[in-house]
Write a structure and sequence with these properties.
Elements: E1 23-27, H1 34-49, E2 53-54, E3 63-68, H2 73-89, E4 94-99, E5 114-117, H3 125-128, E6 160-162, E7 164-165, H4 176-180, E8 184-185, H5 188-200, E9 205-209, H6 224-232, E10 239-244, H7 247-252, H8 254-262, E11 266-270, H9 278-283, H10 290-303, E12 308-315, H11 322-332, E13 337-342, H12 360-377, E14 382-385
Helix pairs in contact: 8-10
Bound molecules: iron/sulfur cluster.
Length: about 400
């Protein structure tokens, strides 16, 4: 288990390296999820800003931070392995479990002796660790390479503002919803202040971060379009990137969404259609008419020709036929960038109980076809992810190049 090498510059508050309060050691098998990387970066900064040091190895630490991910069973296994390593090598040390595994009810996960800080409970750090600076006063806007591996359309150069956590949908395969529950949004005033502060530093593009941007405001009686219009009052010299926007939102609010896109100020959007097959979408419990969504996407592209449009497509969902799969390749055509994600069962989800599963030879065939599509039709702008733990996407391994 390798240690996370943490950049000196992020730890740059006075006294952060003197370990007055003990030293931390980081294990982080998460990394590919922007919301998780954002929250974990904030947690690490909390320790460094409050006089904790950074241990060079686990033996030299007093506190072990384990950041976890539950997006697939593979990621859960990697997260459990990191925790086992921390336990085996951390006798007498404090072990802090971060990320989605801290809140996912997992049978057999022994929590005794751990401090569990789930994604929505970062404020609890204050209660466990002495601090002059509360975690609520730690600000984070950029994600460091040590804690984040960029995904589609978002990267180290982006200036992130987390506006909400949780989701108002109920997709049948999703562990995020099981962990994070209903949406909890940040007040528009606070987000506006963050934009103004960024503008004063010269930032001209902001990446709005949420598990589902389209769920923003459900708990506050507002919505994403109202937030964006409010943010635009800060000036006309900046643009926005939108993480995940659940497709039904685009239909429900089409006129306002089209007007906002027509400003040319939405630089990037991910509208995760997930499948081109209505039957599969229904089984996913994603209740939107895919034909209408695709028509809306075409109109938005016409309104905003400079915007980068992205989507996620899940392949090999239970019962998916070859025709269903081909329909997904069709919808992929409408986007600039596509991330094909191989389905795998998440224990205790509705989708895990759906049969038949796609047979293994057919799984491989579709992964290969998606790879050929990504490599030839969207060269350099798409990826096929079979396993979230892999360093190299499936379509980019040597044998699939060309
Ligand atoms: S929209 Fe995304 S986060 Fe929400 S339930 Fe569906 S897959 Fe999960």
């Amino acid at each position: 288990m390798t240690a996370v090498r943490f950049p000196e510059k992020l730890s740059g508050s006075p006294g952060s390296q003197d370990a007055r309060r003990g030293s931390i050691f980081i294990l982080d098998p998460s990394k590919r999820c922007e919301p998780s990387a954002y929250l974990f970066t904030k947690s690490v900064k909390f320790f460094l800003a409050n006089g904790y040091g950074m241990a060079k190895n686990i033996e030299g630490s007093e506190i072990i931070l384990v950041n976890t991910c539950c997006v697939t069973e593979d990621k859960i296994a990697a997260s459990k392995a990191a925790l086992d390593f921390a336990r085996a090598n951390g006798k007498g040390k404090q072990i802090v479990l971060f990320g989605c595994m801290a809140d996912l009810p997992l049978p057999g996960l022994e929590r005794e002796g751990l401090i569990c800080i789930g994604p929505k409970n970062l404020a609890e750090l204050d209660a466990h660790f002495p601090h002059p600076t509360s975690v609520s006063h730690i600000s984070v806007h950029q994600l460091p390479p040590a804690l984040y591996e960029p995904g589609q359309g978002l990267g180290y150069g982006d200036y992130f503002i987390m506006m909400a956590q949780g989701c108002s949908n109920r997709c049948s395969y999703c562990n995020i919803k099981r962990v994070k529950g209903e949406v909890r949004s940040g007040p528009a005033d606070t987000i506006l202040q963050e934009v103004r502060a960024g503008l004063s530093l010269g930032v001209r593009q902001f990446a709005l971060l949420a598990d589902d941007c389209a769920s923003y405001g459900r708990d506050l009686g507002t919505d994403l379009t109202q937030l964006i219009e409010r943010l635009f009052t800060a000036g006309d010299n900046f643009g926005l990137k939108l993480g995940y926007v659940y497709p039904q939102f685009v239909l429900t609010h089409f006129d306002k969404v089209e007007r906002i896109f027509g400003t040319g100020r939405i630089r990037y959007v991910n509208i995760p259609v997930q499948s081109g097959s209505q039957r599969i979408l229904d089984l996913m419990n994603r209740r939107y008419p895919v034909d209408k969504v695709m028509e809306a996407v075409r109109r938005l592209r016409a309104a905003a020709p400079e915007t980068t449009f992205c989507t996620h497509i899940m392949i090999n969902f239970p019962t998916e036929s070859h025709d269903d799969f081909l329909k997904s390749l069709d919808v992929a055509d409408a986007f600039d960038e596509v991330l094909f994600l191989h389905y795998s069962d998440n224990r205790d989800t509705v989708a895990a109980g759906l049969f038949p599963k796609v047979p293994e030879p057919e799984v491989r065939r579709r992964l290969d076809m998606a790879s050929d599509y990504a490599n030839h039709c969207k060269t350099g702008r798409s990826a096929v992810i079979k396993d979230f733990n892999c360093d190299i996407p499936y379509n980019m391994v040597e044998t699939r190049k060309g």
